[in-house]
Amino acid sequence: MSETSVAEVGVDTRPWWYGTFGYQVYLRSFADSNGDGIGDLAGIRGRLDYLVDLCVDFVWITPFYPSPMADWGYDVADYCEVDPRFGTLDDFEALVAAAHRRGLRIIIDLVPNHSSDAHPWFADALTGPDSEHRDYYIWADPGPDGGPPNNWVGYFGGPAWTLDPASGQYYMHLFLPEQPDLNWRNPKVLEEFDRILRFWLDRGVDGFRIDVAGALVKDDLLRSNPQVGPWDPAAGRFEQWLAFEHLHDVFQPESHEVFRRWRAICDEYGAYLLGETYHREPQGLADLVPGDGMHGGFWFEPMHIAWDVDELRRALVGPVELLGERLLWASGSHDHERSPSRFGGGDEGRGRALALNVLFACLPGVPILYQGEELGLVDGRVPPESMLDPVDNGRDGCRTPMPWEPGPGGGFTTGEAWLHSDPRSECETALAQVGDPDSWHSRYTDLLTVRRALPDLFDEPVVWTDGDHGPVISYRRGPVGVAANTSFDRHQVEVPAGSSVVYATPGVEFAGAGQLVLTAHDAVIWAAPS
Ligand code: NOJ
Ligand code: CA
């Protein structure tokens, strides 16, 4: 795909991802090719035409590396291999080649904040303070009271330190004890990852989604964070995390050096470097993606908001101004409740999630659908005894298998799915929806198709046209306008005479020249006459 590489100075120097729509594949639950109940690389290959027909431009695949699966693959034991449960390196190369033949690009998930405790580096580090790889990780002597070296807590709850009884030192982990954090102040770690990036780029990947991108480098003095509330190790993970102001464990500016270095490597290949940049303030996100490091970063606010017009406006307006094309928009992921569930469930929730995607569609930045979003999926129901996620308030519900067809296994597997969940209804399946003009799948396919055909909007500023109040959110970008009705009431929207409606959700009515009526949760894209 080098013909559109940004590294080449040609007629069109715009990065390939400008104007694209992405799709997140949660590998374990997308498609199982061999009946072992676990989604795999060959399974994705078998479904590429589905993705092409949906009109997505690139696919981000969650980790496929060898892993003990303590955190479902986000605990990597070898950064340059494929876990046999997901396939082989040949399967990976075959997938990339098959995708590229169809014009689809492949982004892989890189997990540099921590490895698995089963990684040979950590196994060696455990052999003692003088071991070759000891400094690949973050070690410290106990604090004055004999406990952990400082007050840092893990994002999944509990202290961020685990004692290694053999050496009497603690190692640091922002997530599970099985996920020891790498020491990004060690130049050898930087060199290892340069090689890892090139290993995959040489196999044709089109970019990386950097896991936990905001947290790589930690405070060099390992200073304690200011405590801002009571900390109860028995409390929920978010409550524990919010008991501290995270001055010293995450968001250290030195991480930018790592990203500048990776940016140079990715630019050689024309690859997209995007971050899991978990910051709830637009300015915080802008600081993480300053322009010369990662090309883009996910904005997470839309994954947290309730369906409330003020929250929606706040989640849309601020980041656009500060980040523009550096934004990645998503309303769901494998870590969050699916947006139709969060927005009220049923067709009401589905309609709202679609309206939000219509709002994303013409803003600067790259929107990404989470697998099954195009089917309007709400969270799957996982019986309590079948829940597998190690984290409290488990993430199993958004990770249930993709419902391709009705019946046992749902077309996902011929065997027993790794995660047990209630069967989906027939109308939720891809088989029932694809080709039915009145399905959620068709509404999403139409949206992605329309977006691809829109004129180039990159130099057009976003002008919010709703006066910052009222239940209809609307903006213009050059010749294109977008409006979404967040309420249950009917609302009239005026568009310039002679405009054409290029996309409309089913309830939109035409009330005469230049007049549209949006019923509950409708959204529309129109284009002014040229
Ligand atoms: C973010 C990933 O999306 C999530 O699934 C994982 O548990 C954490 N990072 C830790 O790697
Ligand atoms: Ca399989």
The helix content, as a percent range, equals: 10-25%
Strand content: 5-15%
The overall pLDDT, averaged over residues, is 96
N- to C-terminal distance: 33 Å
The Rg value, from CA coordinates, equals 23 Å
CATH hierarchy, class of the domain at 17-111 and 190-212 and 273-453? Alpha Beta
Say what the CATH topology of the domain at 17-111 and 190-212 and 273-453 is: TIM Barrel
Any key phrases for this structure?
single chain; 530 residues; alpha/beta; TIM Barrel; Immunoglobulin-like; eight-stranded parallel beta barrel; 13 helices; 24% helix; 15% strand; binds 1-deoxynojirimycin; binds calcium ion
Q: How would you describe this structure to a colleague?
A:
The strands form 4 sheets. An 8-stranded parallel barrel has the order 1-2-3-7-8-9-10-11, surrounded by 5 helices. Strands 12-13-14-19-16 form a 5-stranded antiparallel β-sheet, covered by helices on one side. A 3-stranded antiparallel β-sheet has the order 4-6-5, with no helix packed on it. α5 (187-201) runs parallel beside α7 (255-269), α8 (282-288) runs parallel beside α9 and α11 (346-361) packs parallel to α13. Among the domains are: 17-111 and 190-212 and 273-453, TIM Barrel; 463-527, Golgi alpha-mannosidase II (Immunoglobulin-like). Helices cover 24% and strands 15% of the residues. It has 530 residues and is of the alpha/beta class. The chain has helices at residues 41-46, 48-54, 89-101, 120-125, 187-201, 237-241, 255-269, 282-288, 309-323, 339-342, 346-361, 430-433, 440-453; strands at residues 22-25, 58-61, 105-110, 139-140, 161-164, 169-172, 207-210, 272-275, 296-299, 327-329, 366-370, 462-464, 472-477, 480-485, 491-494, 500-504, 509-510, 515-518, 523-527. Residues 1-10 have low confidence and may be disordered. The radius of gyration is 23 Å and the shape is globular. It contains 13 helices and 19 strands. Calcium ion is lined by residues 32-34, 36, 38, 40.
